[in-house]
Amino acid sequence: MSLRLAALAAHLRPAPRYFTTTSTIGQSASAAMSPAIKTLVDKTIAENKVVVFSKSYCPYCKRAKQYLAEDTSDVLVLELDERDDGSQIQAYLPTLSGFSTVPQIFINQKSIGGSSDLLKLSHDQVKAMIAA
């Protein structure tokens, strides 16, 4: 085998087996989740009409917070990048919403998705969801 073919073949080899997939990482993070984190997140969602799990530098988070601010002042925002337990909170959120990105928006204890999902709703729809 020529040197060029050997180099090409090396690039085409399957990934070593010691790499884990994202789903495995997510499962292990969820399995090791602190009960205190679960309680904190569940209680926060239960006790507030509108909760946004956000990161302060995220443009999608900023857009969602601005959109919600037009409808209500009663929004609790948790900036995960500014909290010591932010990564643990973010690791737990997929068990509630089905996705791990931010923002994650909950209105009356229901996950409505992220920024794109929120912006698909009219302001009247958002106000109705908050009032329900």
Task: Please give a structural write-up.
With 132 residues, the chain is of the alpha+beta class. It has one domain: Glutaredoxin (3-Layer(aba) Sandwich). Helix content is 52%, strand content 14%. The chain contains eight helices and four strands, in the order αααβαβααββαα. The protein has helices at residues 3-12, 22-31, 35-47, 59-69, 86-92, 94-97, 115-119, 123-131, and strands spanning 50-54, 75-79, 104-107, 110-113. A four-stranded mixed beta sheet has the order 2-1-3-4. The longest helix is centred in the N-terminal third of the chain and has 13 residues, at 35-47. The protein starts with a helix and ends with a helix. The model is unreliable at 15-30 (pLDDT under 50).
Overall tally of domains: 1
Average of per-residue pLDDT values: 85
- Overall 3D shape: globular
| CATH architecture call | 3-Layer(aba) Sandwich
- Termini separation comes to 70 Å
Q: What is the spatial order of strands in the main beta sheet?
A: 2-1-3-4
Q: What's the CATH topology name?
A: Glutaredoxin
Helix content: 40-55%
GO molecular function, one term: glutathione disulfide oxidoreductase activity
Domain Glutaredoxin: 50-112
Pfam families: Glutaredoxin (PF00462)
Keywords: Disulfide bond, Electron transport, Redox-active center, Transport
